[in-house]
Amino acid sequence: MFNTLRTLLLTALHAFHRRATVQYPEQQPYLPPRYRGRIILSRDPDGMERCVACNLCAVACPVDCISLQKTETDGRWYPEYFRINFSRCIFCGFCEEACPTYAIQLTPDFEMGEYARPNLVYEKEDLLISGTGKYPDYSFYNVAGIPIPGKARGASERERPPVDLHSLLP
Amino acid sequence: MTSSALLTIILMPFLLLALATVLTWVERRLLGLWQDRYGPNRVGPGGLFQAVADGIKILFKQDWIPPFADKGVFILAPAIGMMTVLLSFAVIPFTMGIGIASNLNVGLLFILGMMGLGVYAVVLAGWSSNSKFALLGGMRAAAQMISYEVFMGLSLLGVVMMAGSFSLHDIVTAQAGLWFIIPQCLGFAVFLLAGIAETHRLPFDLPEGENELGAGFHTEYSGMKFGMFFIAEYAGIVLISSLVTTLYLGGWRGPLLPPAVWFLLKTGSMVAFFILLRASLPRPRYDQLMALGWKVLLPLSLLNVMVTGTLLMLRASL
């Protein structure tokens, strides 16, 4: 009896509590920078695509939503197409962890509603952004020992010139 | 019959239906308030048109009658529920002048009779649906409402004895000095509990307990037939609230403000109390409900009748 009345009183007092609801479209929630939302492909500081089409993201993806095909121009690898099916994506971020070149990144944006399901399949043009994303200075080809036009073998950062096997000098 | 009385008769059902519809919104907002959330607040000012939107939606829903149902009774049941509740309002005196038949000399008996008939709505709905859950819900409803009706009537005897009349108008007049809630506090408590059970509102909503019976007696109902049960339930809340106001809270009486405002204020706070009950209390088990009724409330109401009668006799003999 007393318990029941106490319950009534306590519930009534909740009228003066702050409401837990966030009025979403008007009141945007704070999303931390590492929030795992819409996936993007970033570019290196020179404006070239970072993705080298190594397929590690597609392998890491637990729901197989990433599909890509490698192509090559002047020694650089590129994806010929890069496709993410966002109707399958679970935003786990494994692709970002797997990526050796920081190309694929997750962003704090989740407002991707569509009326037609095929519109959720994002092509490379939809995924590519013009900037560098979370890693402003990183450029894969500047630290990797792969020769590309404009950079000879051994000219990368923290890389010594290759050893001349035919020379006897140390 | 004067033209104003005729106008009241015509306007009353419309007002009540509109009120019951708005109550669905009020309940959801109040529940939201007590559960630290908002409730419907998008359609119209403060979400007020949510009730209209729901009404339009439910009108356009497919009104399906199951092939295994007893068609005639199936259609009749919600109509009975609606009619009995609306008819009960005929004898409620809203103010001194407003009211359809508030001078009826058996007004209270009329309301009890209408509530008794209201049981048919749920029982017939449960029976004609011809399915397990509906039948179980209907059976529960029958047992609950019939047993709670017993001491609902008994608890009212105290009021009738003190006022010396079955007419609701006279009962309000008799409360000129003191509201009956003070001398009849026991009867008030019993009547309130019985009233909650009569409208099968939470915590006594066992006939429709959704976690064990689907939706109870209206499991098979859809479209506007379901809507009629829904509206009848809310109109029932208003009915019980206005009855409590009339019988125990002095009806339209009160200082300063006009009588109609007082009546609305008292009824409104009773409705809010009904919703608060829903927001806070869990549903008892079915045998607990029956035990509470027969083992606690019935003796209490008998005691109330006895004490009131004895005191009245003593006062008369002095």
TrEMBL record, chain A:
Listed cofactors: [4Fe-4S] cluster
Domain 4Fe-4S ferredoxin-type positions: 39-71, 80-109
EC number(s) given by UniProt: 7.1.1.-
Taxonomic placement: Bacteria, Pseudomonadati, Pseudomonadota, Alphaproteobacteria, Acetobacterales
Coiled coil segments of this chain: none
A single BP term in Gene Ontology: aerobic respiration
Cited SUPFAM superfamilies: 4Fe-4S ferredoxins
Membrane topology category: Peripheral membrane protein
Record carries keyword Repeat: yes
Compartment(s) where it occurs, according to its Swiss-Prot or TrEMBL record: Cell inner membrane; Cell membrane
Major subcellular site: membrane
Species assigned in the record: Acetobacter estunensis
Family: Belongs to the complex I 23 kDa subunit family.
A Pfam family: Fer4_7
GO cellular component: plasma membrane
Entry superkingdom: Bacteria
Protein name (database record): NADH-quinone oxidoreductase subunit I
Automatic annotation (TrEMBL), chain B:
Pfam families listed in its UniProt record: NADHdh
Signal sequence annotation: none
GO BP term, example: aerobic respiration
Keywords of this entry: Cell membrane, Membrane, NAD, Oxidoreductase, Quinone, Translocase, Transmembrane, Transmembrane helix, Ubiquinone
Topology in membrane: Multi-pass membrane protein
Superkingdom of origin organism: Bacteria
Location of this chain's protein in the cell: Cell membrane; Membrane
Reaction equations catalysed: a quinone + NADH + 5 H(+)(in) = a quinol + NAD(+) + 4 H(+)(out)
Presence of keyword Membrane: yes
Enzyme Commission identifier(s): 7.1.1.-
Residue spans crossing the bilayer: 73-94, 106-126, 146-166, 178-197, 226-249, 261-280, 292-314
MF term (GO), any: oxidoreductase activity, acting on NAD(P)H, quinone or similar compound as acceptor
Family under the similarity heading: Belongs to the complex I subunit 1 family.
Subunit-structure text: NDH-1 is composed of 14 different subunits. Subunits NuoA, H, J, K, L, M, N constitute the membrane sector of the complex.
Name the record gives this protein: NADH-quinone oxidoreductase subunit H
This protein's encoding gene: nuoH
